[in-house]
Amino acid sequence: MVDCAGAAVETAFGELFALVKDVVKTVAAFRGKIEFTLSSINSVIDQIDTYSSMLDRPQEMRPIKLFGYFLNGNLLINKRLKYCNMHFFIQIKHYLLEFFPNITFSALKELKESSNSMLPDAGALQRELEASGDLAVPAAPDFMVGSEVVASLSLLKEQLLQEGASVTVVTAPGGCGKTTLLKKLCHEAAIKGKFKDKIMFVPVSKKPNLTDIVQKMYQHNGFKVPKIKSEEGAAYCLQQLLKKIGQNPVLLVLDDVWKESESIVDKFVCNDIKDYKIVVTSRYEFPHFCPVHHLNPLTHDEAVELFRRCVTVDDGSKRAPDTELLNKMVVHCKRLPLVIRVVAKSLRGKDYAFWNKKLHELSEGHSLLDLETEILACLRKSLDDLDGDPLIKERFMDLGSFPEDCKIPATALIDLWVELYKLDFDGAGAATDLYELDYRNLADLVFPRRDSRDDADESYRSHYVMQHDLLRELAIMECNQGEVVKRERLILDLMANNFPNWWREQRQQPLRARLVSISTDGKFSTSWPNLELPAAEALVLNFQTNMQTKTYALPEFIANSPKLKALIVTNYSFFPTELGNFHVIGSNLRRIRFERVTVPFLNMGKICLQALEKISFFMCDIGQASTSNDAKISDAMPNLKELDIDYCNDLMRLPDGICEIKPLQKLSITNCHNFSALPEQIGQSTSLEVVRLNSCTALSLLPDSIRSLQNVRLLDISECLNLSALPDQIGQMVNLKRINIIGCPKLSGLPKSIVKLRNLRKVVCEKEKAVMWGPLKNTLPSLDITLFEEEPNLDWLK
After folding, report:
1. Are 708 and 731 in contact (CB under 8 A)?
2. Which segments constitute the NB-ARC domain (predicted)?
3. How many CB atoms lie within 10 A of CB 156?
4. Rounded to 10 degrees, what is the CA torsion of 258, 262, 265, 270?
5. Taking the domains of the chain in order of start, what are their residue ranges?
6. Helix (H) or strand (E) run with residue 593 in it
7. Residue 64: its pLDDT value, please?
C-alpha cells in the first residue's frame, strides 16, 4: 500500500510540476520561481522516510495525504493562477508547510516579491502580510522630503550592501522619521535584491517580548513555531533559527528600541552568519554598538516645502499664507516631519486670522526644557481646535487604549465608539472619524486588502489603525490630565505586578472613568485588586502571557461594573491563552471582542448575556460547539445581532442553537479552514441580512434551508475552494442584492431558480465565471457583473 501511494505521489507531483512549467512559460515574473520550489521538493519526495521524525502521522498515511495536497495544488494553479492574488501563495504554502514543516520556502516568497510588477496591486499584497502579523516590511512612504533623507539612504545602503556582520544604530528624536527612512531603505531594489525574503522588520517598542518576537520570526520564515517556556529558551531558539536561515544574507530591523532594552539587541547578534545585518532605530544612542547614524531634522527650506505640501487643500482652492508666516510656523515645529504633518493638517483650509491665533498659541510654549517635551507641547496645541469638532480629539484620545506599535482593528474601535458615543448599531459615522484621523496625520488607516474599501455593509473588517508612538504618548498625556478619580479615561500600563499606590489603597474612591484600558506584560501573575468602576462603559484588556501562565484571569471587578457595555480582550502573545474567571462577564454587556484566547462555545452557553448584541472571535480557539440542552447559545445570548468568527481554525461546525437566535442579522465565518457546514436549521434565522463565509476552504455545500433567508442582501462565498454548487432554490432569497463568488473554482453552474432574484444588483467574480451570469442580464437589466481584476496602480490607497 505504501509503495502504491508513493508512486501515486510521484505521478501527481510530476503532473503538477509539468503544469507549473507550462504556465510559467507565459509569465516572465514567474519563470523559475515555482519551478525551483517544486524541484527542491521533488528531491525530498525521493527520501520521504527521512521526514518521519518531523511528522506525527503514521508513515503509510503521509504519501496519501501528500497526494491529496498535490491534487489540490494542481487545481489551485490551474484555476487560480489566472488572477493570482496573494491567496494563491497562501494556499500553496499552506499545503506544503503542513507536510514539510521545516522546509524553507524562500522561492515562494521570492516569487511574491519578484512578481510585484505582474501582480497589479503589490501594495495590497504587502498590506495583507502586515495585517496577518507577519514581519514583512511595511509599505514604503508615498514621498519623502529632504537632502538628509537622500544622504542617509545612500550611506545606509552602502553599509548594508557590504559583506559581513554589523549592527548599525539609526538615532534621532521622536518624530524625525527614523522608521519611515528604514521602510524606504528596505524597499530599495538593491537591498531587496541582496536580502530577498530574509528581511524582517520587528517593532520592539517600550516593552519587548523576546519570546513573541522569536515565534513571529519562525512563522515569518516558514518554520514550525516552537513553544518557548522562558527567555533563555527564546534566546536559544533564536540562535537556532538564525543558523538555519543564515546561509544567505539576512537583514533584521529592530525598530523603536528603548534605552532600557539595549540588552535585547545583544540576543539577536549571531557570529555564525557571514552576512548578517542588524539595523536598530532608537531615540537613544547605544555606545556599545557601532556605527551610529544620526538622522538630523529637515533643513529650514525642506521643512517649509513639506509644510506647504501638507497644508495645501487637495483641490488647490486654498494655499498656505505668505512665506513669513509659514517660516514662523515651521520654526515652532522644530523642522520635524511628524510635527509638521500634524500641525499643517490642523491648519489646512484655515484663514489668515486662524493661522495667527495658532502661531500665538505655539509661541507660548517654546521655552520648554527638552526637545521631546516641546514636541509634545507643540502637538498638543494642534489638538485644541479641530474644526470646532471636539469628537475628533475624543476619538484620538481613545486610541491610547491600545498598546504601542500595534495594529488596532477598526472594528474594535467602532465597538468602543458605538457604546461610548451612543452611535447606531452599525457604527454610522465612526468610519468618517477614522478617515478624519488619518487625514490629519493623527493616525494611519491601513487597508490590507484591495477590495476592503468595496465594503457592501460598511463593516470595515479589513481596516486597521496605527499610531506613531509620540502621538500615542500625546493621547495618554491628554487622558491623564487631572486627578485619577475624575478622569474620563483611565489608561494603565502595568509592569509585572506593580500596581499604582492609589489602586492598592484599602479605602478607594469610586472612579468616574467611562473608558478603562489595562495592559499587562508577560510577568503579570497576581490576582487583581478590586477596582470600583460605577461609570465604566468600555473596558479594554491587553495582555501577554508566557508558557508558565496557562490562563489569564479576567478581573473580578468586571462583575461589579453595572454600566459596562463593551469588553475587548486581546492576547498579544503568539499562542491563544485560556480565559479564567469567565463567569464575571455580566448580562449588561452589548459587545464583546476576543483575540487569541481560548473560549469554548460550551462556556458561552453557560453564562447569561441577555443584552449582548455583537460578539467577535479573532484567531481564537473556540472549541467544538455544544448541542446539549443545558448549554444552549440561544438561551445565553437571545438578543445577538452579529456573530463574527475570523481565523478560528478549530471551528468545524456552529451549534444548532445559533439558528434559534431570532434577532441575528449578520453572520460572518471567515478564514476558518476547517469549517465544513452551516447548520441545517439556518433557515430559521430569518432576520439575517448578511452572510459571509469567505475563505472557508472546507465548505462544500450550503444547506437547502438557506432559501428561507429572505432578508439576506449580501452573500459572500469568495475563496470557498471546495464549494461545488449554489442551493437549488436560492431564487427564494428574494432580497439578495449582492453575491461575491471570487475564487470558487468548483462552482461550474447556476441553479435555474437564480432568475427569480429580482433584486440582485451585483455579482463579483472572475472573468471565466462571468459567462454563467451573462444570460441573467436579459431578465435583470440592472445587474452589474463586476470582474475581479486588481487595478494596475495604487490610486485606491490615496
Report:
1. no
2. 156-312
3. 23
4. 170
5. 2-118, 147-294, 302-382, 390-466, 480-598, 647-798
6. strand 591-595
7. 44
**pLDDT reading at 625 higher than 50:** no
pLDDT at 551: 84
What average pLDDT is seen over the chain? Answer: 77
Cell of 582: 469567565
Question: Which residues in 108-123 are b (16+ Cβ under 10 Å) and which e?
Answer: bbbbbbbbeeebbbbb
Helix (H, G, I), strand (E, B) or coil at 158: helix
CA nearest to 532, candidates 571, 494, 559: 559
Beta bridge partners of 444: 466
Distance CA 215, CA 62 (A): 27
Cα–Cα distance for residue pair 101/67, rounded to 1 Å? 17
Cell of 765: 467574480
CATH topology of domain 302-382: Helicase, Ruva Protein; domain 3 (1.10.8)
pLDDT tens readout for residues 725-739: 999 999 999 999 999
Residue 452 CB-density burial (10 A; 0-12 exposed, 13-18 middle, 19+ buried)? buried
- The set of cell numbers assigned to 44 is 525530498
Count of all residues that appear for the chain in the document: 798
pLDDT reported for residue 383: 65
Over residues 770-777, mean pLDDT: 86
Other C-beta atoms closer than 10 Å to the C-beta of 593 total: 21
Radius of gyration from C-alpha coordinates of the chain = 27
**Count of other CB atoms within 10 angstroms of residue 532:** 14
State pLDDT tens for residues 332-349: 777 878 888 877 877 777
Query: Thinking of the domain 147-294, which architecture would CATH place it in?
Result: 3-Layer(aba) Sandwich (3.40)
Between 652 and 431, where is the model more confident? 652
- Model pLDDT for residues 337-394, shown as the tens digit of each residue: 888 887 787 777 777 777 777 777 666 654 333 556 666 666 666 666 554 567 888 8
| Alpha-carbon distances, residue 798 vs 117, 122, 435 (angstroms) | 20, 15, 11
Torsion sign (Cα): 68, 648, 125, 462: positive
Are 320 and 313 in contact, with CB atoms under 8 Å apart? no
Residue 50 has a pLDDT of 44
**pTM, rounded to two decimals:** 0.73
DSSP letter string over 63-116?
Answer: HHHHHHHHHHHHHHHHHHTTT--HHHHHHHHHHHHHH-TT---HHHHHHHHHGG
pLDDT tens digit sequence for 684-722: 999 999 999 999 999 999 999 999 999 999 999 999 999
CATH of 647-798, picked from 3.30.470.20, 3.10.20.30, 3.40.50.2000, 3.80.10.10, is 3.80.10.10
All 3 cell numbers of residue 86? 496573494
* 87-90 long-range contacts, CB within 8 A, separation 24+: 87/695, 87/719, 87/743
